[in-house]
Each structure stands twice: as structure tokens, then as C-alpha cells.
Amino acid sequence: MASSTVIPPPTAPFATGKKEFGLSGFCSSQPFSSRKSRKSASKKIVSVMAPQQAERRPATTGSVKNAMTMTEKILARASEKPALSPGDNVWVDVDVLMTHDVCGPGSFGIFKKEFGENAKVWDREKIVIIPDHYIFTSDERANRNVDILRDFCKEQNIKYFYDIKDLSDFKVNPDYKGVCHIALAQEGHCRPGEVLLGTDSHTCTAGAFGQFATGIGNTDAGFALGTGKILLKVPPTLRFVMEGEMPEYLMAKDLILQIIGEISVAGATYKSMEFVGSTVESLNMEERMTLCNMVVEAGGKNGVVPADSTTFEYLKDKTSKPYEPVYSDEKARFLSEYRFDISKLEPLVAKPHSPDKRALARECKDVKIDRVYIGSCTGGKTEDFLAAAKVFLASGKKVKVPTFLVPATQKVWLDLYTLPVPGSGGKTCSQIFEEAGCDTPASPSCGACLGGPRDTYARMNEPKVCVSTTNRNFPGRMGHKEGQIYLASPFTAAASALTGYVTDPRDFLQ
């Protein structure tokens, strides 16, 4: 089995601005090291480079008078300001506002309280309402929430309401989509240069399209429903440069787990996280969405990937609305910059009970598990299931623990039954999953990612150990407060299902 080069750790933690970060979180050895970098240093890329010590000054000559980052430019456009700097407070025009069945009712209540029972929303075509969290359940309060969404959308004549009426068979609900963050992209609501807000912390997923996307609370959402505006403080930007060819056993989940493990769950608090470099450019849109999805697990305000030909190609059949991408200026000011050589990274997991408890999958091989969960906005996209199917196909074996599959959207569910898996001789994901002994793919929704009512599919109602492609592993996140969740890529999740232990996917992919 081929192995990545392990660079020995430094004798002291590296400095980032005024803070110091160690390299805790690994089971034992780590795939990367950290070291300071100066302009005179070698051009060889190491795993992480401490930020430049000299402050980056804005350009004062030439066509660019005030150099800005992508996030600053987007917010400047949305606030009609010629230039912005981190810390500025500005009123921003909202391009898209999304809410779902958990937060929608509360947001509507605040809207009516503040603007009046008969008030109308600021723009019925810029509001997207997506039931997705607690859908396939007999819980009366959960079902009532969807009824409240339906009543509000009818009253306000909301154009984009993805309703579900028949819970017994999602396929007879043509309007129903599934997980909001994936549906937003698939239905063409994500566009470069725009501002997208949602009453869900993982709204930052849409930053993969080169836009400013962040989660907000019900109060802000209620205000935005009436005005189309929100007051925001401009965040400083952390820049993550990822270079090197992506090994065939890695996915974007490994990249973001590495970053969160490096900077901690508080390392990007109210900061923008910008992802660039040849590795990022090689990722498809779904993988970029995984990368941006979990910036909030580092405390980030938003994540963003510069729009390129991959972005534009994805959007071709998704939207007809014009959009204008923006990019960070060459002399834009970044609070910190980190550099990674992805070719040296190994498959990772995040151990219970925090997304920054980074560990090598191969060093956790003695961790016995009870189940595997493949789904959610982070790990329930088409590419995620194709990756899992690749591992099952390569092994030719059956899973040793219950393996639950929850497609994010109706489109993903359909892909599982129609798209042939490369190298399978024409087999679909669903056929490969059935041969491997997995559960039948469930109705598309957030499923057990947020726990939900007790009858939620695959919810942990007992203290189980689970390898999951979701994004959080806090106590009680998937149900039982004593459950243990190991966050992992679909590759690692599928490999673990085949052995009943946390397993490095290279055991099957090489």
C-alpha cells in the first residue's frame, strides 16, 4: 500500500497573527507539519504556511484604488459602496432569502409582528422556501410547521415554494426537492457575485458558486422578509491555498477536516474563508460545496471559491438570470494565509465530539462501529454516492454494519437509480448498494443529520458508534446524547461499513 510522506512536526506551534495553534487532534502521527514561511523561503509548498508577517497594503496606484477580497467586493456591490474594509457595518441588499420548515414559522411570526398581519414581503420572487428537515415523520408539530409554510406561501404568492403534500411517497410530489442547500444549487438559485441568506448555518454551502452566502437567525430573516436588507459587519478574510494533485482516495471532506483540525472550531470566527489553488480548481461543483459547507464548523461567517469555467458550465442549464462574478484583487488584504500540499494528505476523520478532533483514519482502525450513515447536505450529493459505490464495487464484499443511505434531493435519488457507476459495467449506485447489503436509499431529506423526531429514519435512539458523512458530531447531534459520531468522507464511510471498524479507504481503493 502506497503511503504519503509524513513530515515531522516542528518543535513549537506556529504563530497565526496574535494566536498560536498546536497540532493536536491526531491519533498519533500527522500527515502534515506547520512551519513559518518568508518571502525568501523555498517555493516548495508545505502543508500549512503561517501568514505573512507584513500587512498586505491596498494598491494606491493604477486602476485598482482600493484592493479588496471577493467577499468585500460582493458586499460593496450589495451595499452600493465604492469600497469596504473588514469591520465596516453596512446595509446590504439581499438577492435571495431562503428558509425551511424549522425556522420558517418563527421568521414569519416576527415578520408579521413587526410589519403587520397584512404586510407583504419585499419581493415574492427572491424568497425560496424549502421544507427539508423534519419531513418524513408522524410528529404532529413537525407536520404543522410544513402547514405553516404552505399557508404563508399561498398568502404571499411566493414563487419558489418546494412543497410536499403526500408524505407516504415523495415521488408523487413533483415540487418537493429535499435538502435546502443542495436544492438551492440544483434549482438555479446560486449565482456568482450575489448575496444569499438562509435561516440555516450551512447556507454557507452556496459560497462554492463565488457568492456571499451565510446563515442568519429568525429575527434577521423576519426583517429581511419585509425590507430585503440586512445589516452586516464586513468580515476579514482567511485565504487557504491548496496545491497538488488530489489523490484518488481523498475527497473534499478530507480537505475541510484538515483545515478545521488545523485552525480549530473557533479559528475562523466571523471570518470569510477563501479557497484557491490548483487543487480547488480541479474540484467539481459538488465537492466545492462540501468545502464551503463546513466553514461554519470553524466559526466562519462565509466560505467562497472563485467562479471559473466549472462554475459557469454547471450554471448553464440552471439559471437564465445574468450574474457578474468577482475576484480578489492581487493586493487584497488577507488576515492570514495557509498553504497545503494536498498530495501528502491522508484520509481523515473527526473523532467525537468535535469537528476539529482531526485524526488519521488508518490510526483509528481499532475503533469498532455500529453503523454507517451516508447523506446530508455535506455527504448526500450524487458525487458522494458515486464515491461510496466505487469503494463497494472495488471490494466485492458486503457491509458488516447497518449502512443507511439518505439522498439529499429527489434529483440525487433519481441519479442513484439511473447513472451508471464508472467501471461497473453499467451498474447503478442502487444496484451496487443492494449487492453490498446496504439499506434501500431513503426518501430525500435532512434525515437523521439533526436527530429530529424519534421516528426519523436512521436516527440514533440508542448510544451507537457511527461513521457519518454529515458535518457535526456534537453530543446528541444525530439523536442519542451518548452516541459517538466519526465524521468522514463517503470513501472512508463506505470502507468502514465493509469492516465494521473505522477504515482507511486505501484498503480497498489501492
Features:
510 residues; alpha/beta; Aconitase, domain 3; 6-stranded mixed β-sheet; 5-stranded parallel β-sheet; 15 helices; globular
Structural notes for this entry:
By secondary structure, the chain is an alpha/beta fold. Among the domains are: 90-233, Aconitase, domain 3 (2-Layer Sandwich); 351-509, 2-Layer Sandwich (Aconitase, domain 3). 27% of the residues lie in helices and 16% in strands. The protein is built from 15 helices and 21 strands. It has a 6-stranded mixed beta sheet, sandwiched between helices. Strands 8-7-6-9-10 form a 5-stranded parallel beta sheet, with helices on both faces. The protein has a 4-stranded parallel beta sheet with strand order 14-13-12-15. Strand 1 and strand 2 form a beta hairpin. Helix 6 runs parallel beside helix 8 (285-293). Mean pLDDT is 90; it is low at 1-62.
CATH superfamily of the domain at 351-509, by name, is Aconitase, domain 3
Strand content: 15-25%
The parts where pLDDT drops under 50 for at least 5 residues are 1-62
Count, helices: 15
Class by alpha and beta content: alpha/beta
Straight-line N-to-C gap: 7 Å
Q: State the major sheet.
A: 6 strands, mixed
Class of the domain at 351-509, according to the CATH hierarchy?
Alpha Beta
| Overall geometry | globular
**Number of separate strands:** 21
Spatial order of strands in the largest sheet: 17-16-21-20-18-19
Mean pLDDT value: 90
Write the layout of secondary structure elements.
Elements: E1 14-16, E2 19-21, E3 34-35, E4 48-49, H1 70-79, E5 89-93, E6 96-100, H2 104-115, E7 127-130, H3 140-156, E8 160-161, H4 180-186, E9 195-198, E10 212-215, H5 218-227, E11 229-233, E12 237-243, H6 252-263, E13 272-276, H7 278-282, H8 285-293, E14 302-304, H9 309-315, E15 336-341, E16 348-350, E17 358-360, E18 371-375, H10 376-379, H11 382-395, E19 403-406, H12 410-418, H13 429-436, E20 465-468, E21 484-488, H14 490-499, H15 506-509
Parallel strand pairs: 3-4, 6-7, 6-9, 7-8, 9-10, 12-13, 12-15, 13-14, 18-19, 18-20, 20-21
Antiparallel strand pairs: 1-2, 5-11, 16-17, 16-21
Helix pairs in contact: 2-5, 6-8, 11-13, 11-14
Domain Aconitase/3-isopropylmalate dehydratase large subunit alpha/beta/alpha: 90-359, 362-500
Pfam families: Aconitase (PF00330)
GO molecular function: 3-isopropylmalate dehydratase activity; 4 iron, 4 sulfur cluster binding; metal ion binding
